[in-house]
Design a protein that fits this description.
5-stranded mixed β-sheet, 163 residues, alpha/beta, globular, two-stranded parallel sheet, Beta Polymerase, domain 2, 3 helices
């Protein structure tokens, strides 16, 4: 199935959820509504053959100065039989940075979503074990956010810790 056919199937199945489609250097990116991401990911896996979640990450668009949502959750998925990649993006607001977990669709999402929460502060609804994975349990904040304080001894969040 071609990239165009995948996009057309997504548009037909989720007409109001597909917000944008971009192609750059042979890679297709489909931006979808956050509230539909679980259904879309399940459809991509079960009906379109994207059985592998290669990566999931959060993006902070604060420095971009746009008027849209501050964050995006990005899903890089792969159809091993067709050797085909697809990137899904879901915008997430700063006021309520949360989205449904896809750990029930792809088991690998479990740790990737924990990393995204730990470093970006994007919460995943119904995640089976959402807790810090890289930072210490007592860490304050999410260090990959663009507005996270400059780091170093004597500054937050290191203040009072031995370095």
């Amino acid at each position: 199935m071609t990239d165009q056919a995948v996009v057309e199937k997504l548009k037909a199945k989720f007409p109001s959820a597909v917000l944008d489609v971009k192609e750059f250097r042979g890679e297709v990116t489909v931006t979808v509504k956050a509230e539909d991401v679980l259904s879309i990911c399940a459809y991509c896996k079960n009906d379109l053959g994207f059985t592998m979640l290669a990566d999931l990450c959060g993006v902070d668009l604060l420095a971009m100065g746009g008027s849209g949502p501050r964050f995006q959750v990005v899903y890089n998925i792969y159809n091993m039989k067709a050797k085909q990649r697809l990137r899904l993006k879901a915008p997430v607001t700063e006021s309520d940075p949360r989205i449904d977990t896809v750990s029930g669709v792809w088991g690998s999402a479990n740790w990737l979503e924990r990393e995204c929460w730990d470093l970006m502060g994007i919460s995943f609804n119904n995640h089976p074990d959402l807790r810090r994975i890289l930072m210490p349990d007592d860490w304050v904040g999410h260090p990959l956010r663009k507005d996270y304080p400059v780091q170093g001894p004597g500054r937050e969040p290191y203040q009072g810790r031995e370095v």
